[in-house]
Design a protein that fits this description.
Strand order of the largest sheet: 14-13-12-11-15
CATH topology of the largest domain: Alpha-Beta Plaits
Structural class: mainly beta
Number of strands: 15
Low-confidence stretches: none
Number of domains: 2
Amino acid sequence: MTEMESPYWAVLQTRAQHEFSVENRMIDAGRETYLPRCKLDTGRIAALFPTYLFVRIRDGWVSLHYSVGVTQVLMSGECPSRLPDNVVAELKSREIHGLVQLPPALKVGDRVLITRGIFAGYTGLYQGQSPRARARVLLGLLGRIELPTDQIQALA
């Protein structure tokens, strides 16, 4: 990285279940890291993206390849791939007490609101997901429809 380049986020892939120890070694080495955490249904704290850790590149990065527990640095050509700052900012904005809050998973029979598209404003019952990763929703007289999962939200 030249003096003119600004720091950027890169992604390290770690050995399975070594995200926390690699994070600690990076911090001990003076590197800025971000390891998004979440709470599992079991109550255990885990990495949101198992085997991945974000590290801020400010200077040399080649040594990252040889760090204990790191399997690879995700690359774009001969340099680390740049993770946009807004991705990290968005994840951090979803944190409460250091844990990323994820939207609740939908269960078959949950009431949903269609938020976008031709059926926006309609409510229905969630019927699961199709093999093409589209949400199946039962809409009264119209029957079951399929639409992108980002066009529905759970109703309380």
